[in-house]
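Problem 12. The chain below contains 151 residues. Write out its predicted structure in token notation.
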Amino acid sequence: MSASSERSRRLDFPFFWPVVVRWSDMDALGHVNNAAYFTYLESARVGFFEKLGWSAGSHGQPPAFGPVVVSQTYNYRRAVMYPSQLEVGVRCAEFRNRSFILAYAIFERGGDALVGEGVTVLVWTDLKAGKAVSLPSDLRRGLEEMQTRQA
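Solution.
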């Protein structure tokens, strides 16, 4: 998703993550609480990273390097209620030396109805030192591929 007001299309995304709305995602107004959408994006982001071959450590050990969210936005397009089924599209919108931007769009499962769109800025970090470091070449290649590939 660009910063413009242009809406996302399903074809803009090479990766999709399924989401089943839980009863606990609802708020007192009868629709999915705004905070739940960030959890949906997080789940899709983890699935996206797994598709790229990155995992959050092994055998109970935390990773030495990884992505840290430094900024996140979400634009709500339509209300969602339980028991909806959704799909979160993810793509790499941009990558830099030490950071990258993931764009998301949430659609009703199996359709083109856009629920909302989001953007996350992530910095690749040496987690022990707490410092941003250059993106590894294999991650950069994977992000580049996911930036250009369409579903």
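Discussion. Residues 10-148 form a domain with the Thiol Ester Dehydrase; Chain A fold (CATH 3.10.129.10). Students who got a different answer should revisit the alignment rule from Section 12.3.
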